[in-house]
Write a structure and sequence with these properties.
Elements: E1 15-16, H1 31-34, H2 44-47, E2 77-81, H3 87-104, E3 109-112, E4 120-123, E5 139-149, E6 155-165, H4 172-185, H5 212-221
Parallel strand pairs: 1-5, 2-3, 2-4, 4-6
Antiparallel strand pairs: 5-6
């Protein structure tokens, strides 16, 4: 939908790619018995968060996935921002870094220089077109689920995100799109129906900051069960997550 007060820049719907590395055998129906859904302890910053305005949330708009909620349990969350090659890119980098800083008040985030070490990668590029869709979005977030092998040899179900932000965006819409897409990457896999939330489904003429409703929703998400971040047993290596 589109109304006259919105600029013609829409935030691309976050699209999931479930790529389960190392899980190559026949599907096993008892996934929940192999990697049960369990909640992780709340990060300290979210545990201490209190909404004095009692603004409510939009948790009912968040999609529940087969792997559970997209919760980060290994902290800090490492974020890579594509390095600038010109003055315009340098300004863009600063806007994205400010968006990371805004979310850092609620979850531990760390900007890293090596994309291979990042949990979230952010690129100054047009989002790739989906097959059969000729209309490009200005921003898009996708995730992958895979098995990560730790240094001690144990394995756990993990995920990573990639964010594309179109270089055609300018001014306040750069940081607005970055705040929104980072919200997806931090676990808000859905949209708010309210324009005053950063996770509203479209950009508005005056982009809002992160709202109490955004954080209330994030806190509820991080209280939910997930399979992400829990050990993968030998039997679960033969499991396929569609």
């Amino acid at each position: 939908m589109r109304s006259s007060h919105k600029p013609p820049i829409f935030l691309g719907l976050a699209i999931a790619i479930l790529c389960i590395g190392l899980l190559l055998s026949q599907p096993t129906p008892a996934t929940e018995d192999i990697i049960p859904l369990k909640p992780h302890p709340l990060p300290t910053s979210l545990a201490q968060w209190e909404d004095l305005t009692q603004s409510g949330d939009y948790f009912d708009q968040i999609e529940a996935l087969k792997v559970g909620y997209l919760v980060w349990s290994q902290l800090p969350i490492k974020v890579y921002i594509e390095q600038p090659t010109d003055d315009q890119g340098l300004s863009w980098f600063g806007e994205i870094a400010s968006a990371v800083e805004a979310w850092k008040a609620y979850l531990p985030l760390e900007i890293v220089a090596d994309s291979n070490l990042a949990d979230i990668q952010i690129f100054r590029r047009r989002p790739p077109l989906e097959p059969g869709n000729l209309r490009a979005s200005s921003a898009e977030t996708r995730y992958q689920v895979f098995v990560r092998r730790r240094e001690d040899g144990t394995q756990m179900l993990s995920h990573r995100f990639i964010i594309w932000l179109s270089p055609t965006q300018t001014g306040k819409y750069i940081s607005s799109a970055a705040r929104h897409e980072l919200g997806h990457a931090l676990g808000i896999w859905g949209h708010s129906p309210t324009q005053t939330d950063v996770m509203y489904f479209a950009q508005v003429r005056e982009p809002p900051p992160i709202s109490p409703r955004d954080i209330n929703t994030l806190k509820r998400i991080y209280s939910q069960p997930t399979r992400l971040g829990w050990p993968v047993t030998l039997s679960s290596q033969n499991t396929h997550f569609p």
